[in-house]
Amino acid sequence: MISDIRILNYQLLSSLFYDVPNELQLKDYLLITKRLSEICDKDTRNELHFLNNRIESVLDKDLNQIAVEYSKLFLLPNGVVPYASCYLDGKKLLKQESWEQVKDFYMKLGWKIDEDENYLADHISVELAFMAKLVEECDKKVQNQFFNSFLITWLPSLFQDIKNKEISYFYYAVACFGDAFIKKEQNRIWDGGVKNG
């Protein structure tokens, strides 16, 4: 049961960062966040309620608002860059050392990503989707290794940057939920006695 909840959280976050959600996707996210807020513990419940309220608000307004926000946040030069290499390698450039490292990790576990199709291997959506797959298929040691080597090294900074952007409304709530969930995952790993992979 706990693994299923973790998988759903990772999949939800991955899909929220993948692209601008359409009305049908937002309605699905609404159902998912409502269900998660009923079954999750207190560590993420408030953030799920907050995200749920923002989804409802966006559905009640012009859906173009979310497309504008997504573009300003993730596509324009003054936004945030949702790629690990831009956070970890000190150059704010894509395809740096951390990109190579995460690609190597994927390949060691037999996971191939076609980077020509959508995003590079170190995009937040790709890394979160991979973590969902690890929770589903791999032992905790592999999950913890990926989490400690990749996710926790840059996601808190990305979430903070999103929250600091004035344009952020819907994605402010997404970042709040993401931050709370990643902190919960970090505590789960540390409480399990595996602090460094």
Overall helicity: over 70%
* Sequence of secondary-structure elements: HHHHHHHHH
Largest sheet: none
| Strand percent estimate | under 5%
By secondary-structure content and strand pairing, the structural class works out as mainly alpha
Number of helices: 9
Tell me the name of the CATH homologous superfamily.
Answer: TorD-like
CATH topology: TorD-like
Q: Based on CA inertia axes, which overall geometry fits?
A: globular
Detail the poorly predicted runs: 193-197
Q: What is the second-level CATH architecture?
A: Orthogonal Bundle
Q: What's the number of domains?
A: 1
Mean pLDDT: 92
CATH class placement: Mainly Alpha
Cα separation of the termini: 23 Å
Q: Radius of gyration, Cα only, in angstroms? A: 16 Å
Q: How many runs of DSSP E, i.e. beta strands?
A: 0
Protein name: Molecular chaperone TorD
Keywords: Chaperone
InterPro entries: DMSO/NO3_reduct_chaperone, TorD-like_sf, TorD/DmsD_chaperones
Please provide a written account of the structure.
The protein is an all-alpha fold. It has one domain (2-191): TorD-like (Orthogonal Bundle), CATH 1.10.3480. 73% of the residues lie in helices and 0% in strands. The protein is built from nine helices and no strands. The longest helix has 25 residues, at 140-164. It is globular, with a radius of gyration of 16 Å. The relative contact order is 0.15.
SSE topology:
Layout lengths: L1 H17 L4 H17 L2 H19 L3 H12 L8 H5 L8 H12 L15 H14 L2 H25 L5 H22 L6
